[in-house]
Amino acid sequence: MTALTALDRLRRLLAAIPWVAERDGPHIDEIVARFDYPRSELLEDLEHVLFFVGVHPFTPDCLIDVTVADERVWIRYADWFRRPMRLGAAETMALYAAGRSVAAMTAGDELGPLERALTKLASGMGSGVDLAVEVRLGAGSADLIDVIRTAVADSTSVDIDYYSYGRDAAAVRRIDPYRYYADKGHWYVSGHCHLADAQRVFRLDRISSCAATNVGFSRPATADQTLEHIPTDGRLPEVVLELDAESRWVVEEYPHMGVEELDENRLRVSLPVSSPRWLERLLLRLGPTSRIIEAPDGLGSDLCAGAAARVLARYRG
């Protein structure tokens, strides 16, 4: 069993907590087998992470109680966790939408507690919530996601025809998919790209075709689950943009080298530029809400003028 990343350990811990809490001291080996949780990492997370989970003032009644003895584990929720949660309308809607997105990609026989929780949330939100909430994670088709999910589970490579937004080019690639996940409204798959000979992240709605292969691969123990596909270590040229509050999404969506808060309405961010085409499209999206403060030759005012001229030429044509 390979070592888990921090994200994988967190997911297993969150899944194991309610399962253990509902049982009278399950055996450690049973937890290890059920959740594919390496024993040493399970014990470390129980005794050095979960034991300290709670809320202010962190007195015993506000902490989760964890007992490990005689090869068995007991988890008891603190009194604070038994109190009904008081969620606002926006929090309830966000939680329901997130649950629906997970349910959409989960087999029916695996829903169980999630389905019951969504039903309870929906009943508290009033009638017609199923018609009011529509969850769309990118444009990835169900067939594409099925191919990716099967390849991840079976550790087999896939061939994809992928459009790179940063390079504004399409190419056929063979990848070894390590995992797929949803983030900020889109589905992604991360893994080893044979064309780049490195780990990469791919957005599923930019994959025009995907074909399974019978080629197996071994996932390295050092696979980085939080890999960013745009480096921020100085290898790429850098531009500094000044943005208004409405454009803060740039900081949340793209890798950056630093953010400076100028005031409550303005901020300054340093961005690595993977290609001039990418920067052009970003600046066109931002419009007058952004301003280039610093840029290397070819990525400043000349780039903006060239992009604007091509856009005007298309309209005139």
What does the secondary structure layout of this molecule look like, with pairings?
Elements: H1 6-21, H2 28-35, H3 39-48, E1 65-69, E2 72-76, H4 89-104, H5 108-111, H6 113-124, H7 129-132, H8 142-154, E3 156-164, E4 169-183, E5 186-193, E6 198-203, E7 207-216, E8 238-244, H9 249-253, E9 258-261, E10 266-272, H10 276-286, E11 290-294, H11 301-316
Antiparallel strand pairs: 1-2, 3-4, 3-7, 4-5, 5-6, 8-10, 8-11, 9-10
Give a brief outline of the structure.
The chain has 317 residues and is of the alpha+beta class.
Protein architecture, described:
It contains eleven helices and eleven strands. The mean pLDDT is 77. It is 36% helix and 26% strand. β5 (186-193) and β6 form a beta hairpin. It has helices at residues 6-21, 28-35, 39-48, 89-104, 108-111, 113-124, 129-132, 142-154, 249-253, 276-286, 301-316; strands spanning 65-69, 72-76, 156-164, 169-183, 186-193, 198-203, 207-216, 238-244, 258-261, 266-272, 290-294. It starts with 5 loop residues before the first helix and ends with a helix. It folds into four domains: 6-82, Arc Repressor Mutant, subunit A, CATH 1.10.10; 89-132; 142-216, SH3 type barrels; 238-316, no CATH class. 14% of the residues are buried. The protein is an alpha+beta fold. The longest helix is centred in the first third of the chain and has 16 residues, at 6-21. The strands form three sheets. It has a five-stranded antiparallel beta sheet with strand order 6-5-4-3-7, with helices on one face. A four-stranded antiparallel beta sheet has the order 9-10-8-11, with no helix packed on it. The protein has a two-stranded antiparallel ribbon with strand order 1-2. It is globular and about 75 Å long.
